[in-house]
Amino acid sequence: MKIRVDLSGSAKDNSYDILIGSGIVNAEAAGEVIDVIKQAGLKGRACVITTETVNGLYGRLFKNFLKNARIEPVVLVLPDGESTKSIKYLSYIYDELIKNRFERGEFIIAFGGGVIGDIAGYAAATYLRGINFIQIPTTLLADVDSSVGGKTGIDHPGGKNLIGAFYQPKCVIIDVNFLDTLPERELKNGFAEVIKYGAVLDGEFFIYLENNYEKILSRDKDGLTHIIRRSCAIKADVVNKDEKEAGLRSVLNFGHSLGHAVETLYNYKTVKHGEAIAIGMIFASMVSEDLGFCTGETLNRIKTLIKNSGLPAKIPGFTPVEYINAMKLDKKVESRLIKFVLVKEIGGFVFKELDFDYIHEFLKKIL
Fold first, then answer.
1. Same domain, yes or no: 83 and 217
2. Of 160, 301, 324, 348, which residue is 20 to 30 A from 127 by alpha carbon distance?
3. How far apart are CA 229 and CA 216, in angstroms?
């Protein structure tokens, strides 16, 4: 199926399609997927940026796919892991693009998880002041979140995603079959972002997740396809209304304020992005209850689904001061206030600017 990211106003020309299916990236490279790629303008040559693991599993299949689509690949293989989202590897990508004389009309293809999508997208946004790129995600996290919406970037030792740009892909191709080889922990890692969509934007979807999480996490193709399709549709609708996070799009940061602090405090090791966001969603829900925006039942439902999905539910034992110092580097901080997304009831949200004194005292109370 196809979902349209239909941007408005001056960004209208940057609108694009998300194609979702099972087995659509294959050696035969026939049908709708080729139509989407051709409509995006991809022809001739492309720089494929991927990881060692993805290349080992699917490199040959993907080269055959591109060959049959009459695309000549120049393949750059980067290490796995969050540490790849760095100046070091961004510079390596620039060096290879220059060495191979890539021109503005040519393409970068991000073939991997969220790390690859972010760094490849940022390279595309900045090389020659912007060249075309396509997202072909291979993890659930990238399928439902990072491949859609045009957020690109790299990390800095001081904080996650502090260097980046909004830059939309020309299309997104999501093949559910790539999840067959995804480690269980990575599948759960992506499921955290799926929970986010239901918790603050779609109460009926949240109920579906409560009733079907076991089936989904056992890799049922229909279940996975449904949650990817619904998550992408929700995110596309938000991005259509607010491409560059001037207002509504901030709702997609539910769980991210404390979550990003957790990642920073672990130095992007030990805890994965979705796991940190799960912790952040529980914290944001606890704050929501404390401030009277939601009931204890709402908090309990969110916490229970996170626990049942095998995601961490306990807030790590860093000190309140450590959390505050990490959160002060958050992109959402302004005038010593940090913009939180809080839950009202399941499927509803409210934005609230919180001062660090309140957060410090609340952390002291719960840790």
1. no
2. 160
3. 13
The Cα–Cα gap between 355 and 339 comes to: 9
Number of domains the chain is built from: 2
Which residues participate in catalysis according to the annotation? 129, 151, 193, 235, 245, 249, 253, 256, 260, 273
Identify whether residues 142 and 277 lie together within a single domain: no
Q: Mean pLDDT for each 10-residue chunk of the chain (367 residues)?
A: 79 86 78 84 93 96 89 96 93 98 95 97 97 96 93 87 92 96 97 98 98 97 96 94 87 94 90 96 98 97 98 96 90 78 96 94 95
